[in-house]
Amino acid sequence: MEDLKLTNETEVINAKKTALVVIDLQNGIVNRELSPHTSVEIIQNASRLVNAFTEKGAFVVLVRVSTIDGKDMLKPSVDLKATPMQFSEGWDSYIPEITNSKAHTITKRQWGAFYGTDLDLQLRRRGIDTIALCGVSTGIGVDTTAREAFQQGYNQIFIEDAMTAGTKEEHDYVCKYIFPKIGKIRTSEQVILSLR
Length: 196
Fold this sequence. Notes:
alpha/beta; 19% strand; globular
């Protein structure tokens, strides 16, 4: 991102107090046209993050969106309809590159990972006060989860090169105008090097 200034300050990320939360890296979502980072790039970076957090004994949460029968999904009246989901076999399965037997998995029925799930409960029971967010889509699942986390008092780290959106403009807007007001923006490399 040309006009986003990623901070180079040296910091320590406490693995005991920080959870990695990976949003919607599942078959039916990463196979779409994404920008500014490609599916290959975010999958590679997310995989490195999952491995690093797991090695440090940190809590890793994999979040996916799914439906039982389509009736449990939101259907408000809107001006701009989202691209319809293709519910083919395995569309809601986590991609193999991030599958981790030690990760806590969450299934959501809406954009954000907190509402209607046990995410807050699991974080608080472990004494976690910071979440590192990545995934798809920057302006939908990641952004909604981030706003929910902000309202519940969590510190946040947004891993810019491990998230992407349907358009570069959507991704850039959220990273430039929203995320810096509710957390810190870092690269996957910065996060991995800072994790203790």
